[in-house]
Amino acid sequence: MIGIFKKEKEMNSACLVSSIILNLLFIINIYMGGQRKLSWSRRAAEEAEAVAAISCSGHGRAYLDGLVVDGNKPVCECNTCFTGPDCSQFIPDCTANAESGDPLFLEPFWMQHLASSALVVAGWHQMSYSYNDKTFISKELEKLIRKVHAIVGNAVTEDRFIVFGAGSTQVLIAAAYALSLENTSSPVGVVASVPYYTLDKLQPEYFNSEKFKFEGDAYTWRNRSDARANMIEFVTSPNNPDGQLKKAVLHGPNVKTIHDHAYYWPHFTPIPAPADEDLMVFTLSKLTGHAGSRFGWAVIKDETVFNRMIAHMELNSMGVSKDSQLRTFKLLKAALEEGTEIFDFAYQTMKTRWERLIETLSLSNRFSLQKIDPQYCTFYNKVREPSPAYAWLKCEREEDKDCNAVLMAANIIGRQGSRFGTEDCYVRLSLIRSQDDFNILMERLNKLVAEEDGAKTM
Amino acid sequence: MIGIFKKEKEMNSACLVSSIILNLLFIINIYMGGQRKLSWSRRAAEEAEAVAAISCSGHGRAYLDGLVVDGNKPVCECNTCFTGPDCSQFIPDCTANAESGDPLFLEPFWMQHLASSALVVAGWHQMSYSYNDKTFISKELEKLIRKVHAIVGNAVTEDRFIVFGAGSTQVLIAAAYALSLENTSSPVGVVASVPYYTLDKLQPEYFNSEKFKFEGDAYTWRNRSDARANMIEFVTSPNNPDGQLKKAVLHGPNVKTIHDHAYYWPHFTPIPAPADEDLMVFTLSKLTGHAGSRFGWAVIKDETVFNRMIAHMELNSMGVSKDSQLRTFKLLKAALEEGTEIFDFAYQTMKTRWERLIETLSLSNRFSLQKIDPQYCTFYNKVREPSPAYAWLKCEREEDKDCNAVLMAANIIGRQGSRFGTEDCYVRLSLIRSQDDFNILMERLNKLVAEEDGAKTM
């Protein structure tokens, strides 16, 4: 009799104990697991995570505002040469895209840093035209940008003015307007040394043919008596397309220079010293890879030039989107949290790609690459090999005058030399696109070189 | 003996039961309470909710990227005339700001719809320059914009092209470039009927004095033999500053018109019929109140004009920030979710403000307001009183030639008539700013009218 009670009692106690343990587990789950209740942001967070969770086989991604085919769930948007509902199917004979400078090579970095780079925006966030200080420029973001430059040591920002624009695109033309004096009887001559960035020619030609006249290669204007009263030289350094650290060609009281430093980051070049020119242009696109955010800035010495650029931005677009400024703020904050990791990731990626390219083309007599000398990098405190954003490919054969056509025939799209003011025996190949794009480019190049008559063998 | 076992047994059972109940409660809390675990978005969500929870007494707000004074928590950014760490202190003799058209009157709507309007963005979201279809224009957003126009019935968008820009500011000048023919020997004459929107004069004058020549009031160019070969007329309807539904003044084969319909929403005007002009410009700023997002669009009939505007956007800023496009997408989606609520809220707010203004100024002999006739509104299916965005105030006294100075003396900032191409006996007062700004404006106006010699009494 007592024995039965004993058993029952033991069983009961066992249940009780396990039940209490379960309770404790729940308590831990709720309070230690950081699962405090979220209110207004929860629905959006779940929605965003659901879309981010759509699997695209690592060859694409689904976006919150991405294409919706049927139903209301966005579909996978696949990389070039991949297709299918989950981007798992490779398109065998597709064309390798090495055309535009879409900086997708940094996408994996952000996919590895989800929590620090996520952004939550309230519906009522920053509705006003201006910030609280009546400007179109976020002071907190400006602080962060100065901090990034200080850490990398690629530009002097102390006692400098900073203006924001919709990518370096809008900043560059704003700078040209600001440097071209008002009421000029004759247009300012705009030049850039060959090979130059395509926009340096297209923008002045399009916007104001009375204010600007594009005068081509800067070298042809050295020590010329018929040089225009006022000249503006665009200096892209490292240069787009060839990655060289460029210096201004023209000098003197009538020459103003705009230094485009979009690529002056450890990703692409050694940093010999902090840049300290009168007007320097940078862009988020080539720093974090967010080209779509359209955010760029200029670091300026002269207050009058700064004020003119501010006025230009106001008349052109009433400043820069606050959404773009907030996103940039969050991304730079996240990048700084990880110390130098973003630079290490970007440099390693670009270095590896460059080495693979050199290896392949070293076997070729038909194609050659630009030579860039190693230099001491103050960021890494060592002499560094180059890791340029673009390959500046030359077709060496007499008959290959149209180098782009040669590549086209091999199923590769590049950008022909004439777009950079030089001969079409040159082609720019973008090395900063997605890993898929780069891999397919290398596949095509390997094939092309392998089929080359008299190609060297390893 | 047995009795003791019984008691113990009962106690144990009691504990067991309550413990099990507790378990069930936890299970319910976790799985019914919608508290599924969030992963990468959680930290950002908590951060955003923490900042949003900072109390600013309803006279200000703290922003995620807002000013940080010390520590790392953003501080309250107060409305005009309020100060203190929580914006609770009123500044007695402060100046009423009725100057700019900052559409903060819609902020309360978004504060009431937090969950539907919140946005969560992944760090890797839309990094590319272009969308998957190689354009700079989000197709899903374009669909949504067409849907909004269809629901409101304020514009025909079927078989029309749509281009995006950084606010109507960038869209308007892009339109002017697109409509000014290339290789014109003489500049295109740009006109607008007085009173006109300030930018219609400033933009053509600034950007390209060879392409455009601002020729002032459109009326002075009717049936004139010396009219330029090509003319562009800006038609802002409802008009900024006076809220009238404007029609084009100039007609004929050499005249192109740009219809600025920024204010053609039920908020501000009856909608007699869907607008169906060749080139119509709209902006998010005056639809949802998000001026800071810098998002505008044009609805275009002619494909050549559309292509020219696309090219302009590319050369000017490589399209519109994808962050701005994503935010617009989320906001319009949220607005549509609530049916016509945003329009009802906006209309009621503007109507109430206009009525309060009329009531005050009806007692005045010194000041008069624009008269706007009621019209049938196809959106509300009834004849509607006006609810304009701006008061177009006139100082009636001979000695009050500088009406802005009169208001300044009464501690009110408006925008003087000359900014709109007319006499300074007119002043524009913005009615779309925050409720605080409007209340203080009314306070100052009441005082001004009350002190008026020979003011009428109720």
TrEMBL record, chains A, B:
User: GO molecular function terms here?
Assistant: carbon-sulfur lyase activity; transaminase activity
Ranges annotated as spanning the membrane: 12-32
Looking at the record, the residues that make up the Alliinase C-terminal domain are 96-449
Q: Which Pfam families match?
A: Alliinase_C, EGF_alliinase
Keyword Transmembrane helix attached: yes
UniProt keywords (A-Z) are: Aminotransferase, Membrane, Pyridoxal phosphate, Transferase, Transmembrane, Transmembrane helix
Q: Which cofactor is recorded for it?
A: pyridoxal 5'-phosphate
An annotated GO BP: amino acid metabolic process
Recorded hits in Gene3D superfamilies, A to Z, give: Aspartate Aminotransferase, domain 1, EGF-like, alliinase, Type I PLP-dependent aspartate aminotransferase-like (Major domain)
**Keyword rRNA-binding tagged:** no
SUPFAM superfamilies in the record: PLP-dependent transferases
Per the database record, which ranges form the Alliinase EGF-like domain?
39-94
CDD domains xref list? AAT_like (cd00609)
Give the record's family classification: Belongs to the alliinase family.
Q: What is this protein called?
A: Tryptophan aminotransferase-related protein 4-like
